[in-house]
Every structure is written in C-alpha cells, then in structure tokens.
Design a protein that fits this description.
693 residues; alpha/beta; 8-stranded mixed beta sheet; 26 helices; 41% helix; acyltransferase; Hydrolase_4; transferase; DAGAT; Acyltransferase-like protein At3g26840, chloroplastic isoform X1
C-alpha cells in the first residue's frame, strides 16, 4: 500500500511507495528530503534517502570522530549554533497537515544525518500536534550524536493510545534486535511522554533512556471541561474560515517573515525580538494551526490524553529505564509538580530539570537547548553506561561563551608560559601541542581558575583540557539544598571524576589532563590559607605519567584574593549549629576520597564559604617548563626517584605562584577601572597590557 507523500518543505519519501514516485519526489525535493520508515509492518531496511545519508556520513567520518569518539586528539573548531524558529516549525508543519492522512510512520530529517559511528537511536514521540517536528530547533545538534527518527501521526488518524504504544514497541524491539549493545532513547513530549513510559514499562529488559518533556501527569479539569464544551459548540471548517477571513497567502507570509528577520533580528535582538517573531509567526500561520488541530482531532486528543495518563499511572512502577524529566515552570494544564516529585522517587534512575521560564512547548522556545541539557546531566551514552571519557561531547562556541564570558571579561586573564630555552612569554606557546600531557597546579578557591584556563587553551592553542574533578560534581541529587545546575560547567568543559583509572585512561588516549593534587582541600581552603598547597605525601601521579611518557607541566595561578574575601570559613561554620549540620551532611553525601589520610589533606569539609565580593581584580596564570618523563619509566618505578620528581613538580608550582604574586604588584592594569579605560580607548577586543616580563 502506497503512502501519500506530504506537501512539506522538508519533503517525505515513503519506503513503501513505488520507485517512480520516489524518484519524482526526490528530484523535486532532493536538498530537503526526509526518509520515512513504515510502522505498518516490521521495520524495513533504510530507504534510498537514508542510504545516501549514510554514504555521506562515511565521507565525513573523521570530522565526526573528533567531536564524539576522540575529542581530545584534535579539537574541532565548533560552528555557531544554527537553530530554526517557531516560524520554521509552522511553515514545515503546513506540508504535514496536508499529507492526506494515512497511518502513523517514522521519518528522519536529512539535516540530522551527520551522526558519528555508533551513535544511539533516538525516537521522538510528539505531543498534541502529532507532526513529529517538535525537535526542529534541535535537529542540527542532535543529529551529530544521535540517529533520529520522528513519529508522524496524521491529523485524521484515530489510532488509540494503546495501539500507538504497540507501534512504538515494535520499532524498539526491532532496533534492539539489530543493535543489542546500544541504548535506545525515547524522547516524548506531553502525551508522547506517557507513551514512552508505557513502552519502557512493557520492556524492562531493553536498554532504554527516557527524556520526558512536560510529561502529562494529569488533566486540569478546570481548563479541560470548558475547553471540551467550547470545542463541541464550534462549527466545523474553522481552518478554511480562518483562511477566508485573514486571506493569508504564502507571498504575504514570506514578506512578513523577511520583515521580522530584518527588523526584530537586527534592531530588537535578544529575547524580546524572539518573542515578537514568535507572535508574528503564529499570527501568519493561523490557518496551519487550525488544520493541524481541527475540532474533531482536538476532542480525540483530549480523550487519548486521559487514557494515556491512566495507563501510565498503572504501569509506572514497572519502568526500569533511566529517565530525564524536563519540567516547565509555567505549564499548569497537564503538568503537576507533585506528580513529578512522585515520578522522581518512583523511577529508579531519574533526573529532574526545571525550566523555570518556559511554558507548554519548551522545545520550541528560546533558551532551551536539548543537547546542552544532555551534556550537563551526563545523559549521553553509547554503551551500557555513561563513560565520561569516550561519551564526552565537545562544547560548541556558543556554549563556551555562555560558560566563560562573565569570568573572562571581568578578570582579563594573563597567560604566561615557558619555552624550551627557559624564556617566559605572554602566550601559551610554551605548552606541548601533542599529548599525553599532565597539567599539575594550585587550585583556586571554588575553582574560579578552571573556566578561564580551559577556554584560553582551547581558544589560543586548540588544546582541550580534561579536568579531574571530585565525584560530587557528577551527582544528580533531587533534594539538594544547592542548585545542581551550578556544577554544569564542570561537565560541559570535560570534567572527569578523579580516580587512578581515570588518569590512566586519559593519558592512554594521549589527552591533555588537568590535575589538582590539593583537590577539595585547596578549593575550599580557610581564611589565611590563600596560595598554600595541600598535597599528599606520596607521589600519586608521577609513575602513571611516566608509563605513557607524558609531559608534566607545573603551573601556578593567583588572583582569587582580588575578587573576593572569605569571611566565614569551615571553622567559623562549625560554631553555628545549623551551618555545622549542613556542612556535615554535605560532606557525608559527597564522600571523602582521601578518607584514611591522617594528614591535613584528609581533613576535607564540603561547604560553601561565606565570601564578600570585591571589585574584580585580575587573574594570572604561569605555566612552567614542561618536564619530560618519556624513557624514564624504569627509573621512576623506584619510589625514591618518583618522589624526587614529585617534590620537584611541587616546588615549581610554588615558584610559579610566588613569581605571579610578586610581578602582579607592578601591573598597572591589575584593577578593573584601568582595564576598562584602556579598552574604551583601544577597543573592547584589544589585549590589555600587563607587567614587564
């Protein structure tokens, strides 16, 4: 049976249609082709459109590999984010609305066709609109790390929720049979989230990962009952009526789109411009909205919604899949925060992310980037569990700017390095280009040094540091007193939970690894302990570095005392009962990776120090001369020899810190005002001078 091809700007090519029809459609829409997968029988082999897409993937495999498979061998110059708008969604939905009906089927946009080898399958299950285009703003980025299939449910389709679950389940089982060692992601929005939960409940032995966007947990009768009554009272043919009243034509709509892009994009910009563009997009596409959700379809969806919610509530305890719930702060119709709290406690591995400023359809709104959220929650994997090294996805240019713009702009970091002949230069020229390299240094209060250092190395030398961080930064606690989003930057920038195995694995992959031997004790130091090293007695990293011939780069950093002052440290907080209890609870949850160490390093308190901010001063980084370990593996197996090298590294870190503390006193631009005046007269992008070397 042939499936009618929708008149979409994306275009759909049916795998069960005749070859002549496919060739005609492919010829007319060859640049915007989307392959469709039948769901009326067993999942068929990929269409010619998919085969062409995979062929292109093979040609670009090396580029994709840098992003997903081996992100530390050579950093890709990240492209600016290319995001579609609500107007694009409505424009492309126009073709889906007029597709002539038929059965539900899967399609895969070709703009999602650049995924790396071994990427997991992502099945998108739409919400009330049923078009399957709900991820349109995210296709480009998602398509680099997932094989995306989207479910399209035609407007006239009346498949019950239970049959849709069976349809999705059939595809899940088929793909699991083909790739049993890869996870399958189910991304469901609203009603689609209910269907995804039902599929997971029916298949507890299949490796699934669920991303539920505003899952429908209940129907607000205060809204739904009047809505049903109003819909029943409306006449049929509303879409045609709207088109006759407003007389919208394609050329007029295109002119308005051009006007919105030119005026709102250039003159307004920002959130305000995006909001006005969305309002204009909706107003120019009222007929499309009317055809997408006519009266009888809306009434059917409301009934299907109630059925889906009832089914989920019965089966929720059977779900074993890991789950990420995205909950809008302004969705009051289908989302109940108390129900989400029950879900988070019932589902065995559940993370809840609240999108405070978003409404009913967050995936189509500004400020929501699904790939960024997946990165920040460590929710991406290609095997049985998430691997912080092999499953890491590089940040894009936009993500880097979001993470570092405030710190870098306010502290104007000075970067110094040492050449092979011992010359100190104001650049990162002295750093090794090829890994493995181990950077060992002093840890600033609260890790303020991490973001400027990682971003500057990436920007200037195309070197991506993989920092070893305390495991507490990778916990996803639901009842934490602190917002866990504050740790997003560590995961975004490539942080890895510190362990001997992590160091071994990173150096084996020839990575540039960042290690702070003082760890939490230095990052949460007390009053009067600025720039004091708290390193373990034994040489932990020297022998593993020598095993892979890694270069060791000692470095120092100063400047934290120029941006804030500690007024309430752990000793002070222990004298306040409430704060003492909070500190002990945080320390117990985080765990002490130095437990059993009787030195000062083992005295690790997890707390938030009380600080008073200052007018920002300046950060200074000094990288010493790289220390070679290649060819010294046998020599450094001797504990005494390894300890000698360990003490040498520690001494050079202390010398780097002392040098910076001395030299910054002669920097005329150490304080914020002189730097602002300099940039006001020389240009805001100009490099600000510093002390003489």
């Amino acid at each position: 049976m042939a499936i009618t091809v929708p008149r979409s700007t994306l275009g759909l090519c049916s795998v069960s249609s005749s070859s002549n029809l496919r060739q005609q459609r492919t010829s007319s829409l060859k640049h915007r082709l989307t392959s469709v997968k039948s769901v009326t029988s067993t999942t068929p082999p990929p269409s010619s459109g998919v085969q062409r897409r995979r062929k292109n993937n093979d040609e670009n495999e090396a580029t994709v590999g840098k992003v997903v498979e081996n992100p530390y061998s050579k950093v890709e110059a990240a492209r600016p984010d290319l995001r579609k708008s609500l107007s694009d969604f409505l424009e492309e939905a126009r073709g889906f609305v007029g597709d002539g009906g038929g059965q539900p089927r899967w399609f895969s946009p070709l703009e999602c066709g650049a995924q790396g080898q071994g990427s997991p399958l992502l099945l998108f299950i739409p919400g009330i609109d049923g078009t399957g285009l709900g991820l349109i703003r995210h296709h480009k980025k998602l398509g680099e790390v997932f094989d995306i299939w989207c479910l399209h449910i035609p407007v006239s389709d009346r498949t019950p929720a239970e049959d849709l679950v069976k349809l999705i389940e059939k595809t899940v089982k088929s793909q699991h049979h083909r790739f049993p060692n890869r996870p399958i992601y189910l991304v469901g929005e609203s009603i689609g989230a209910c269907l995804a939960l039902d599929v997971a409940a029916r298949n507890p032995d299949i490796d699934l990962s669920l991303i539920l966007v505003n899952p429908a947990t209940h129907v607000n009768n205060f809204i739904s009952q009047p809505l049903s009554g109003m819909l029943n009272a409306l006449p049929d043919g509303i879409p045609t009526l709207l088109e006759d009243i407003f007389n919208f034509q394609v050329t007029y709509s295109n002119n308005l789109d051009a006007l919105s892009n030119n005026f709102f994009g250039q003159q307004m910009g920002g959130v305000g411009g995006g909001m006005l563009r969305d309002i204009l997009a909706v107003s120019t596409n009222l007929p499309t909205l009317g055809r997408m959700l006519p009266k009888d379809t809306l009434l059917w969806k409301l009934e299907m919604l109630k059925s889906a919610i009832a089914s989920v509530n019965c089966h929720i305890y059977s779900v074993r899949a890991e789950t990420l719930i995205l909950m809008s702060g302004r969705d009051q119709w289908l989302l109940n925060e108390e129900d989400i709290d029950i879900y988070s406690r019932t589902l065995p591995k559940c993370i809840v992310r609240k999108l405070d400023d978003n409404g009913q359809f967050p995936l189509l709104e500004d400020g929501v980037d699904l790939v960024t959220i997946i990165k920040c929650t460590s929710f991406y994997r290609r095997g049985k569990s998430h691997d912080h090294i092999t499953d890491y996805i590089m940040p894009t240019t936009y993500e880097l700017k979001q993470q570092c713009r405030l710190v870098v702009a306010s502290t104007s970091p000075v970067m110094l390095s040492t050449l092979k002949d011992g010359t100190i230069v104001r650049s990162l020229e002295g750093l090794p280009s090829e890994g493995p390299v181990l950077y060992v240094g002093y840890h600033m209060l609260l890790g303020f040094d991490l973001i400027p250092m990682v971003t500057q190395l990436m920007k200037e030398r195309n070197i991506h540091l993989r920092g070893l961080a305390h495991p507490m930064f990778f916990l996803n606690l639901q009842d934490s007193l602190v917002d866990m989003k504050m740790f997003d930057k560590y995961k975004m920038m490539g942080g890895v939970p510190v362990s001997n195995f992590s160091i071994y694995k990173l150096l084996r992959e020839k990575a540039h690894v960042l290690l702070y031997p003082g760890g939490v004790r230095e990052a949460f130091h007390r009053k009067g302990e600025e720039y004091k090293l708290f390193w373990p007695e034994r040489s932990e990293f020297v022998r593993v570095a020598s095993k892979f011939g890694a270069k060791i780069v000692p470095f120092g950093v100063v400047g934290v005392d120029d941006i804030c002052e500690i007024v309430l440290d752990s000793n002070d907080q222990r004298k306040i009962p409430i704060l003492k209890d909070l500190m002990e609870m945080a320390t117990n949850i985080a765990g002490n990776i130095r437990e059993g160490d009787e030195s000062e390093l083992g005295n690790q308190d997890i707390y938030l120090p009380g600080i008073i901010p200052k007018i920002p001063g300046r950060f200074y980084f000094y990288f010493g001369k790289p220390i070679e370990t290649a060819g010294k593996e046998k020599e450094l197996k001797d504990k005494e020899k390894a300890h000698e090298l360990y003490l040498q590294v520690k001494s050079e870190v202390e010398q780097c810190v002392a040098y910076l503390k001395m030299k910054r006193e002669s920097d005329p631009y150490r304080h914020l005002l002189p730097r602002m005046l300099y940039q006001a007269t020389h240009g805001w992008a100009s490099e600000i001078p510093t002390f003489h070397l």
